[in-house]
Write a structure and sequence with these properties.
Chain lengths: 292, 233
Amino acid sequence: MIDPTYLGQILVNGISVGCIYGLIGIGFCVIYNASGIVNFAQGAFVMLGGMTAYLLIAKTGLPLLAAGVIATLVVAVLGVALERLVVRPLWDRNATMFVMILATLAAQIVVERAMLLMVGDQPKSIAVFTDLPPIRIGGVAIGYQLLWIIGVSVVLISALNAFFQRTLVGRAMRACAIDREAAALQGINVSGMLALSFALSAGLGAIAGFLVTPTQYTAYNVGTPFAISGFIAAIVGGFGRPLGAFLGGIILGVSQALAVVTFGSGMKNVAALSVLLLFLFFRPTGLLGTAK
Amino acid sequence: MLDVKQLSARYGHVEALHLIDLTVGANELVAVLGPNGAGKSTLLRSIMGLTSSSGRVTFAGTALPRRSASAIARRGVVLVPEGRGIFAPMTVAENLQLGAYQIGGGGAEFAARLQHVLSLFPRLKERLSQTAGSMSGGEQQMLAVGRALMAKPKLLMLDEPSLGLAPKVVAEIMETLGRLNAEGLPILLVEQKAPLALKFAHRAYVIANGRVAAEVNPREIKSYDELARYYFS
Ligand SMILES: Nc1ncnc2c1ncn2[C@@H]1O[C@H](COP(=O)(O)OP(=O)(O)OP(=O)(O)O)[C@@H](O)[C@H]1O
Ligand SMILES: [Mg+2]
């Protein structure tokens, strides 16, 4: 029998890392909805978010939060660059989806290697945002960084939801996801929406990377594992459903945390892939997905 | 207003339109008739820049861009596509707002347009917060036309708005289109139901096998057998 306090601790940790997966998963959904592309360079955005913040702090001494905001904006711009330089030329040539997905994977590798050349292979970290001892609730220690992760995630999800539901541009993006051609017939600049979706999901990835770096570390190669987890979160949530991806991320984070304490840390990936397989077998449309 | 010259379009190696010449004058309602697979939808889609086509399409004196439906829509050429293209999971209000995307979907101008559209199709008024996909076929078609009108088009093109609808609903929609045309809106209407289209049209083209088989004056058509001849020529 696992001690309930210990279980509570695992759940809290699982939820916070799950929020990170969820944010990355939402990044997948936003681009997928606008274009049908599964952007495997999503992990690069996460790595770039943490790494850019680290570099800004280390080289210019910027305060932490300012570095985070600037890193997010820089990565959003890089997301648009990826769309313009890699995706758009293929898109204009009517390349198959498979080719475009492979191209994003190639871009991920290029970014990763470029970062290796720039900063080397040593892990980097940044300080926790609030340097206070963890809060204790019935024996469960909740670090301030976890609160930051959960708080910022909840704020972002609400903001995104308001953007998609309440603003004209958000509605236009949804319209593109439903029927791209009909959206174009309304005068909506569909390719502009594609660029915007890359900016948005790159920004989300960067924030995820910035939030998670103090609790772990960042290095040129952290992107791929995060991308895989985010991708699984998105599938579990019903691909293309931002809220589903967020819930999927939490399910994944908690399952991983439980697997690690019950079976050992080698089981982390086994747990992730088991969650994926269970959903693919028993609920292939995901949590919130409807059969298409 | 609209001047189509030598328009050809192909899907891969199949030529679906061959050197079409067609015009729509100011205040005109022009019908395009023809059997299934004649190329009627391809014609409207090519005007909107949605196919790979060659030829010249000018509107109000200047050439329309070749491959950008959104840029063409912003010029005021608005298509109600085959199958309506409504955003089914979104509400009726959201659909109408997206029709007015170019003016930012808000403000006094938007409110005036919305009021106008709702006065033309009062049934939409009761359903503003309902999802578009949950409405009847006729109501969805009204929404598709209403959404197009929210853009305040300079030319309205419709691809078989009568498809799959009860005659009473079709009559209602056609009456509305006739009235809008009488108020000065040029309309290019693709329709298989010839008698219906000819009742309202000033001129009509018959398209068969991707070519203009005939240009007819509705008032000179004595029997529909005469028209049917073109369909199979
Ligand atoms: N996406 C496509 N790919 C290949 N061929 C197509 C495509 N769309 C249409 N066609 C072909 O082009 C020709 C013209 O089709 P189009 O849809 O324009 O006809 P239509 O007159 O609108 O017919 P309908 O009355 O049935 O709507 C047909 O032979 C059709 O098979
Ligand atoms: Mg057709």
